[in-house]
Amino acid sequence: MSEPLPRPDAVASSAWGKALEQACAFLAVLGGLLFLCEALMSVASVLGRIFLSTPISGDYELVQLMSAMGIAMCLPYCQIKRGHVFVDFFTLWAPAPVKRYMDAFASLVLAGCAFLLAWRCWEGMVEMHEYGETTMVISMPVWWGYVPLMPSFVLFGLAALMAVVQDLRPLNNEREVQA
C-alpha cells in the first residue's frame, strides 16, 4: 500500500482564495438548508397523507427541484475542500510530481465541465422562461430551479481552477529547489 499524496492546502492564503472559500461555504450552507426544508416538507407530507389524507401538493416536484439545487450548491465546497473521491489505483507507481500534474489536468477538465454546465443551465433557463413551462401539479415556473444552478457551477469551476493552481504551485517550488 502506498502513502497518500500530500495535498496542498485546500485554499490559497490569498484574499481571493479566502473569498472563494467563503462563497463556496455560504452556498453549501444554503444547499444544506434546502435539504433541511426538503426533509421537513417530506415528513409533513407523509404525516399529512397518513393522518389527514391530504399530502402536500407538488411534494414530488419540489423534492426533485430542491435536490438538484442543493446538490449543485454543495459541489463548489466539496471541490474547494478536495472532498471528491480520488481513484489512484493506476497511479500508485507514479512519483508525486506526476500525480500533481495528473490532478491538475483532472481539475482543469472538471473546471471546463463546470463552466459548460453553467452555460447550458443559462441557456436552459432562458428557454424555459420563454416557453413559460411550469410544473404539472403546482404550476411553478420550471426556470426558477435553474437560477441557483448557474452561480453554483461557475463557483464550482472557479474552485476547480484554484485546485489547478495549487497542484502546479508545488512543482514550481520543486524546480526552484532543484536548480
UniProtKB/TrEMBL annotation:
One MF annotation (Gene Ontology) recorded for this entry: transmembrane transporter activity
TM stretches of this protein: 23-50, 62-80, 101-122, 142-165
Membrane topology (UniProt): Multi-pass membrane protein
Any GO BP annotation: C4-dicarboxylate transport
Keyword terms of this UniProt record: Cell inner membrane, Cell membrane, Membrane, Transmembrane, Transmembrane helix, Transport
Matching Pfam families: DctQ
Gene Ontology CC terms, in alphabetical order: plasma membrane
Domain Tripartite ATP-independent periplasmic transporters DctQ component, chain residue ranges per copy: 40-169
Subcellular compartments: Cell inner membrane
InterPro entries (UniProt xref): DctQ (IPR055348), TRAP_DctQ (IPR007387)
Main location: membrane
Main function: Part of the tripartite ATP-independent periplasmic (TRAP) transport system.
Family: Belongs to the TRAP transporter small permease family.
The protein's assembly and partners: The complex comprises the extracytoplasmic solute receptor protein and the two transmembrane proteins.
Name of protein: TRAP transporter small permease protein
Organism of derivation: Kerstersia gyiorum
Organism ancestry: Bacteria, Pseudomonadati, Pseudomonadota, Betaproteobacteria, Burkholderiales
